[in-house]
Design a protein that fits this description.
alpha+beta, single chain, 3 helices, five-stranded antiparallel sheet
Amino acid sequence: MPNRSHGSHALGPGAARKAKLPSWLQSVLKSFPRRRTDNRRTGNQPLGDIPAALALKAEFDVDDKVAFDSSDGLLRGTIVRLNPKTARVRVSASSFYRVPYGCLERQSTESREHRTTLLRSVAGQARHLMQHHGFLLCA
């Protein structure tokens, strides 16, 4: 009978260890809070609420104009960074806040679809100009 102490396994030493995940998957998993096994409360969001947080994050983009309530009253600013659970919002030249997506209210009337349409139009015009001036040979 094989000796199974000190990490040895029937398939060889170290075979009981977890398989190594691809680096892109490891980075995604690191952004989610770990679930605690005891009953103590933490500031982390429970694992079951992650899809809701991701859905809220998908509604916002960098440079969106937003408003949110704070202890200083209603503040307005611009999103400068999207984090997994919060957005970094610039309120003034030297004042930034980390705000949960659920607390943000979009202030600009420009929609994501409008920006996408505008960018496609600009890309088409750029392609046309590059073809016209001989910089882009294939369509």
